């Protein structure tokens, strides 16, 4: 079975140059943990993860412990948010992430995910993002294959 047989073609994505605030809104609206990032020509350039954005605005635990009140801790959070909200997403981009091609065997994708503890991989053909494949997609494809074989 090939990656193309199990991938999801509907990929939440965002373009380079987008501001952090807009990216955070899109992450919240779509409910995904990361967004694929493409340039103005649709070429895949990387991934923006909600975890990386969150780490950019969360104060360090030690900073919070040095504060006398919850309000002072919140002020640290607000200061960090103000510093990064108008920045373009490129600052937080995971550039050159591992990708797979649509004609790769699905076991290759599964092996990469297991070895690297990755939940989802971008599927790229000729620099263009054409989908993603997630562990859940592989599980569904594998179980459907088992059911068909027992059929």
From TrEMBL:
<dbReference type="Pfam" id="PF00571">
    <property type="entry name" value="CBS"/>
</dbReference>
<protein>
    <recommendedName>
        <fullName>CBS domain-containing protein</fullName>
    </recommendedName>
</protein>
<dbReference type="InterPro" id="IPR051257">
    <property type="entry name" value="Diverse_CBS-Domain"/>
</dbReference>
<dbReference type="InterPro" id="IPR000644">
    <property type="entry name" value="CBS_dom"/>
</dbReference>
<keyword id="KW-0129">CBS domain</keyword>
<dbReference type="InterPro" id="IPR046342">
    <property type="entry name" value="CBS_dom_sf"/>
</dbReference>
<feature type="domain" description="CBS">
    <location>
        <begin position="7"/>
        <end position="67"/>
    </location>
</feature>
<feature type="domain" description="CBS">
    <location>
        <begin position="93"/>
        <end position="148"/>
    </location>
</feature>
């Amino acid at each position: 079975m090939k990656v193309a047989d199990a991938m999801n073609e509907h990929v939440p994505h965002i373009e380079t140059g987008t501001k952090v605030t807009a990216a955070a809104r899109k992450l919240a609206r779509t409910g995904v943990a990361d967004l694929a990032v493409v340039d103005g020509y649709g070429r895949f350039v990387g991934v923006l993860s909600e975890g990386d954005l969150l780490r950019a605005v969360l104060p360090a635990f030690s900073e919070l412990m040095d504060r006398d009140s919850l309000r002072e801790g919140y002020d640290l959070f607000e200061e960090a948010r103000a510093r990064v909200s108008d920045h373009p997403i490129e600052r937080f981009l995971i550039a050159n992430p591992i990708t797979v091609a649509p004609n790769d065997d699905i076991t290759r994708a599964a092996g990469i995910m297991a070895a690297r503890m990755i939940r989802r991989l971008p599927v790229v053909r000729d620099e263009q993002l054409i989908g993603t494949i997630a562990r859940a997609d592989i599980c569904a494809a594998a179980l459907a294959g088992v059911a068909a074989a027992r059929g």
